Amino acid sequence: MQEHDLSYILNQLGEEDRERHRGAVAPPIYQSSIFAFATVEKMRAAFGDELDNTLYTRGNNPTVEILRRKLAALEGAEDALLFGSGAAAIAAGVVAGLRAGDHVVCVQKPYSWTRTLLRDFLARFGVSHSFVDAREVAGIEAALTAQTRLIVLESPNTMTYEQQDLAAVATLARARGIRTLVDNSYATPLNQRPLALGIDLVAHSATKYLNGHSDVVAGVLCGSKALIREVFSGPYMTLGAMLSPHDAWLMIRGLRTLPLRMRQVAASTAQVVEFLQNHAKVEQVWYPHAADDPQAALTRRQISGASGLLSFTLRCETTAAVERFCDALQRFLMTVSWGGYESLLFPVAAVYPPDTRVGAHKPGQVPVNLLRLSIGLEEPDVLLADLAQALDRV
Ligand SMILES: *Cc1c(COP(=O)(O)O)cnc(C)c1O
């Protein structure tokens, strides 16, 4: 595998042969489901290796392949597969090596559909699981059984950003022949490189920072050629959750500005965090790059730059006060997802009935009054002013 610099990956990799397309600077969208052959011999060769030939777009497509090469290079992986969603990428990576009787260890409170995959879906096929507090590697070690085949990580994780020591988990898993998969959506490949730390598979919701424009749902799975081939001939081809050529083209475009977007987002987020930490109506702020984060030392060791996700709780008794704050925001859009050009708000109160008492959540659950922000590319002053006027309503 060849190492390329970041600009080469984003501007050139997979697009070198522009003469094939009359010099077109932006790559063409191969909007074709099938690719024809002049001879039986050539068709036979394509059947022999669908991952690296173009035969049928459920398997491989030239536009998708450009994106695939870029994302593999960004993660320092031998190969990658693009999916129609992050959930599909995670599910494919999880089920590829499992059979009935196997056991999976997973971080507690993972992304909701990762939890559902293990708890409700795979359980029906005889695969058992344990959700564990994985802030210390001992939490994972204690849950391993003779049947454990896979460890599923998410670092930092959804909503509250607990981390796992990826190198330590990889060492533990390798010694016992257990596969590891990490959801790296939060950090992006620019800021965290799990494969270099010994993790086997890296998944992303590419819907978030990698595409970055809130116009495509996509996922990616990165790993060794052998593992990617196993996923390809298993869940990838059988479940068929591939990315369309048009969506791949949009993502190639979105990806080109990833370093610029992440730089701006990190700078603005630092300002928002400081503002919230010093505001009387804010109870607690969750942000792995904060100096007082309980895992700050691990953040410094494992993540090279900040992202734009943070959470906080308001000092209030009722969800009505939370709702007044949310409804007053003008510049933050209230919705799910994150990682786009625009700043977003996700209120946990929206999944609870109205008038739920603050503190009514069960231990281990995310607090009812928790608000997650995804900081976008607006001028930070605009965002601070909006937060200030909305906090006045609490
Ligand atoms: C959004 C998200 C996913 C799922 O990705 P989709 O593209 O929505 O399917 C997985 N993991 C994390 C951490 C996410 O935030």
From TrEMBL:
**Superkingdom, natural source:** Bacteria
Q: Which UniProt keywords apply?
A: Lyase, Pyridoxal phosphate
Gene Ontology terms for molecular function: carbon-sulfur lyase activity; pyridoxal phosphate binding
So which cofactors does this thing need? pyridoxal 5'-phosphate
Which Pfam family would be a valid example here?
Cys_Met_Meta_PP
Its cellular-component GO annotations read: cytoplasm
Q: Which CDD domains match?
A: CGS_like
The text of the family note is:
Belongs to the trans-sulfuration enzymes family.
In Swiss-Prot or TrEMBL terms, this protein is called Cystathionine beta-lyase/cystathionine gamma-synthase
